[in-house]
Amino acid sequence: MSSKILVTGGLGFIGSHTAVALQEKGFNVVIVDNLSNSSVDVLGGIAKITQKDPVFENRDLREKQHVKELFEKHPDIEGVIHFAASKAVGESVENPLLYYENNISSLVYLLQELKQKGSANFIFSSSCTVYGQADELPISENAPVKKAESPYGNTKQIGEEILADTCKALGDFKAIALRYFNPIGAHPSADIGELPIGTPQNLIPFITQTAIGKREELSVFGDDYPTPDGTCIRDYIHVMDLARAHVVALERLLNGQEKANFEIFNLGTGKGNSVMEVIKTFEKVTGQKLPYRIADRREGDITAAYADTTKANEDLKWKAQLGLDEALESAWKWQKEVQRREESDN
User: Fold this and answer.
1) Helix, strand, or coil here: 14?
2) What is d(CA 81, CA 15) in angstroms, rounded to the nearest whole number?
3) Which tens digit of pLDDT belongs to each residue from 306-318?
4) Can you give the CATH number for the domain in which 212 is found?
5) Residue 198 is assigned to a structural domain of this protein
6) I want to staple 196 with a disulfide (CB 3.0 to 4.6 A). Which of 90, 186, 200, 299 is the partner?
7) Are residues 213 and 279 in the same domain?
């Protein structure tokens, strides 16, 4: 009998790709999502790719009763991959209480229910934001966690602390926090991808929406950083590689291969690309000219961040396989599919 895995926020960008990866490995997936920042249409994309419908629960994890009912309905859940969280840095600065409620209370309620079960195999969606501007590059898991630049970043730090404390107190609790760098791209089928509601907060959707004519031009925030071309450097990881890492981490816990009952791994490619490099690569792989302008630096942006992936490579036996070209190509293919759907709906 295949393990039943709960994927919270499973209709979001990374959650949906992970649901696909899980189903392709034979897991039975239960997706819980309140559709606040996602679309129920994504279910159809997951089913089309995997030829299997995941179970879907439209529930709000901020409601303690909803979480309780979820576990009563699915008492045989063997693992949880927790994505459900608000993730826009700017919005978190403007509305911190929303972020603390959404990102912290949902985690606590999930862990309380798992405590009732007596054991947990828990994968936490964390972020490289916990490192701030690291003192050394590439960034290893031993780099100090710095004071968060935003309430969003703080919720990831607090989430990790809650998990560490819970695992320490409860011997049968096992958890892994995955600190991702910058997830981009889409499933190669273009049946699912990143679907931001409103103005995109991330670089790649803004690039693809600009290229297709939805946005007038792309703003490059600052060209005076101490980098080779003056623009910020990030570690861009293909969402399919990221999804695969979640499955590998979950199997590590299910198979009892963990070295401690709370572990942390960086997920990235180990290579940094500047904003200008991303723009030029996008133009090269798609043949699309991208209108952009240099704007002022954006508050909270750090100069450079890319991962030391040694620990994930060696302990998880996971390594990013897809490069920037494939990621940008898939993101563009997805954007064209989104446009086609919008036009056929009108």
Assistant:
1) helix
2) 8
3) 999 999 999 999 9
4) 3.90.25.10
5) no
6) 200
7) yes
